[in-house]
Specification:
Blueprint lengths: L2 H20 L2 H7 L7 E3 L5 E3 L1 H13 L4 E13 L2 E14 L2 E16 L2 E11 L11
Parallel strand pairs: 1-6
Antiparallel strand pairs: 1-2, 3-4, 4-5, 5-6
């Protein structure tokens, strides 16, 4: 895989997290393919299939979140044209008032490419119990 292709996929992945941090449904919609073939599993949540179910989940998350930040580590990109996927660790910081919480999720984000770029067709996040990632301290 070329370095340029890897960077395109990582940029699409970052765009997804930027939309999530902004709590911006319009930007989130632009990240997704928005068809009946998309799917999403939020940590501890049900398997969502089709854009209508996935979009509704983002509406609910955004309506109930005041602050969220993602630090992405250990990204691994694989491409089998026209599909690419990124596996990574999401270190998530949330805040409600003065209370701050940090959690760690392992995610798989799958993208397809078309004339307009890379679009997500699957996001799957799952909590894991493991040692702290290299370079992070508690």
């Amino acid at each position: 895989m070329s370095a340029a292709l890897r960077q395109q996929v990582l940029a699409a992945n970052r765009t997804f997290y930027d939309a999530f941090e902004a709590l911006d449904l319009e930007r989130m919609e632009a990240c997704w393919e928005a068809s009946g073939q998309v799917a999403c599993v939020h940590p501890g949540g049900p398997w969502l299939r089709g854009w209508d179910e996935v979009r509704e989940s983002w509406e609910t998350i955004f309506a109930n979140t005041s602050y969220i930040e993602f630090q992405i580590s250990e990204p691994r990109v694989e491409v089998v044209d026209p599909v690419a996927w990124v596996t990574c660790v999401e270190r998530i910081v949330t805040a409600v008032g003065a209370e701050r919480a940090v959690s760690e999720i392992v995610a798989t984000n799958v993208f397809v490419v078309d004339a307009t770029g890379w679009h997500m067709i699957l996001h799957h996040g799952s909590q894991v119990i493991r040692a702290a990632p290299r370079g992070w301290s508690s």
